Amino acid sequence: MKKMKFSAIAFAVTLTLSGCSKPEQDSSAETSTTENQAAMSDAVTPNPLLLEFSGPYEGVPAFDKMDLKYLAPALDTGMEKSLVEIESIANNTEDPTFENTIVAMERAGQALNRAFTYYGIWRSNLSSPEFREIQREITPKISEYSSKITQNAKLFKRIETVYKSDAFKALSEEEKRITTARYNNFVGSGATLDEAGKKRFAEINQRLAELHRQFGANVLADEENYVLYLDDSQLDGLPDSFVKAAAGMAERRGEEGKYAVTNSRSSMDPFLTYSTNRDLREKVWNTYYNRSDNGDEYDNNAVIKEILSLRHERVKMLGFDNYAQWRLQDRMAKTPENAMTLMEKVWPAALARVSEEVADMQAIADQEGAGIKIAPWDYRFYAEKVRKAKYALDSNEVKQYLQLDKLRDAMFYVAGRLFNFEFSEVPEGSVPVFHEDVSVWEVKDITSGKLVGLWYLDPFARQGKRSGAWATYYRSYTTYDGETNVLSSNNSNFVKGAPGEATLISWDDAETYFHEFGHALHFLAADVKYPSSHNGVRDYTEFQSQLLERWLLTDDVINSYLVHHKTGEPIPAALVAKIKSAATFNEGFKTTEYMSSAIMDLLYHTTDPATIEPDTFEKEQLDKLGMPSEIVMRHRSPHFQHVFSSEGYAAAYYGYMWAEVLTSDAAEAFAQSPGGYYDKALGDKLVQYLFSVRNAMDPAEAYRQFRGRDAEVEALMRDRGFPVEGE
Q: For residues 493 and 648, what is the distance between their CA atoms, to the nearest angstrom?
């Protein structure tokens, strides 16, 4: 899952409209010496969260200086400085030009960018009750700051003048795109409303910001509060690696001698796959899928209803029929109808495959005399039995060859072959980090030796860290004010192996690891001029990272990096053959749990919210869709953070499937090329058109430059083993 980044001004413009599920819009560009001196003059002791990055590698974040006492003052001061810069742009007496208006906005707010970098670390990686209180207090201030920019009439007039000028036609494609985006963002933020409309718009934005914060805090509270502790009699079926990791998790929580099953996917998933204790599986399943749906102080149903109502009210003010219609106007799908059409093409095939999968599982349960009907908490457990029966493939056997460190080295190998990047770990202590688990690598171009940037890795789960996996950056590549290097980051929630033991992960987790690294490569390979060119189109930006997953199954990676964690022996060819043979195994489950969330997202945002009671609406709509009783949404509504803790994926969660069409089509191009997945000519086009351009080129045109045509949905169907009409 990508974590988007923006400049402080872009953050202001998109806070209410695009949101940040993760703040996904924190950016950390460098600033001038004079600005740094100004920040230092604010107090005898300068606030370290506002200062220009210093030290090696063109400056790095001062993670060793992070202290919560600095955070609120840094954000307050950063917003004040940013607004002064905005007023200067708005009141410029010279005729508006691209340079004195659009570029000036690109340059503004850099001290605030740095403060948002640290804010993002606390929010995602180091959350605590103390931080959440600061977050609660600062959230309405950020919303107010956003409204002051987007409702600045003089500023909008200057942007509009540039956008509608004859000079606009002479701009480069990148310059046209960022100017158009500026104009559309302001219009979409209510810049054309009358004063009463602007006032109400700002009120809605402020309330939504608080509701998004509350939604995420409620989910995190349930993730932290619900931990199942097991004793030695409750470990039947669980792999040794999981047991050791669970013991470590319990010990770190002060429960030595017990085994912790945390309320996170990385803990829940293997437990449901291997535990033979059906009652415990049901308990773990219910705890995980009922996060923030327990009728207590952390219940999110009322929060969802209010969010939907306010979003609907706001887009009605802009002349749209519903939120999804407004959201998708600048996406590849363009309309909610187009997005839903894609879902409808794939959904029936997914349901048909689920019926087959459940029948296979029920047959095994019946043969064993279990006397049960397959329930949701049985799906993973019996799917694993089917996998063994059909393909003689044992997920735990595969896991013995999936060492976290070796997979990281495999990712570096792929980056070297495709992107000409070389990764070298920097000595411990030479670059500040925000937690002892974080490691840092220097990234160079192999041929020239030129520094590309740094890559930070925070791989392990811990209390206060939000669930899931994501990528972000602390500084983006730009050239408009001199070339900058990149500070990129990957973050995961793997369960750390016991002391002295390798951290072993599942095949799905290994794919996720490659996926998120794809986002980091997207940051590192960027070749754009302006910060705003890093603001990607949501139903396109998952494509590049999804595509990188395909290199996990290449022979080069398999033969060199998938080695047994104890013996060092390469993974047997017979086991690899089983993995490839089972490539589309359980695809019904994976597709249906994802698509149900994507479809519900679109339904929430195309339905009059006055008619919606979230729990009831979710059930009714899924029943209409024919949702199998054995599966639930990947993200049930009360903990659907992509959609309700921000607006980043709201009405846009379908984007993963849209990107999957591109992924499957591009993968076929590599599979059919003379050099396969390491074909030099196609690899160069991959970097040039799919990674380096970011959003400086129309995504559809960029894909056509790579593939020679538009992507075809049939490739997705073939990829998932679903029937294709006419084939």
A: 21
- The verdict on 28 and 139 lying in the same domain is yes
Q: Which residues pair with 260 in a beta bridge?
A: 229
Residue partners of 649: CB distance under 8 A and separation at least 6 = 21, 538, 601, 642, 643, 655
Q: What is the mean pLDDT of residues 273-291?
A: 98
Which token pair is 208?
A: 């939504």
- Answer yes or no: is 55 within a domain: yes
Q: pLDDT value at position 23?
A: 27
Angle between helices 265-274 and 240-252 (to 10 degrees): 140
Q: Strand locations in 33-124, DSSP E?
A: none
Long-range contacts of 62-69, Cβ-Cβ distance < 8 Å, separation of 24 or more: 62/432, 63/118, 63/121, 63/432, 63/433, 63/434, 64/432, 64/433, 65/432, 66/118, 66/121, 66/122, 66/434, 68/122, 68/128, 68/130, 68/131, 68/134
- The pLDDT mean for the chain works out to 92
Give the separation between CA 256 and CA 598, rounded to whole angstroms. Answer: 41
Q: Please state the domain count of the chain.
A: 2
Closest CA to 71 of 19, 5, 8, 120: 120
Whether 142 and 236 share a structural domain: no
Contact 326, 335 (CB under 8 A): no
Q: Residue 262 has what DSSP assignment?
A: -
66 pLDDT tier (thresholds 50, 70, 90): very high
Q: What distance in Å separates the CA atoms of residue 677 and residue 482, rounded to the nearest whole number?
A: 35
Q: Is residue 173 part of a domain?
A: yes
Nearest to 16 by CA among 413, 240, 310, 420: 310
- 191/174 Cα distance (integer angstroms): 24
Token pair 């033979």 is found at 276
Residue 460 · residue 492 · CB < 8 Å: yes
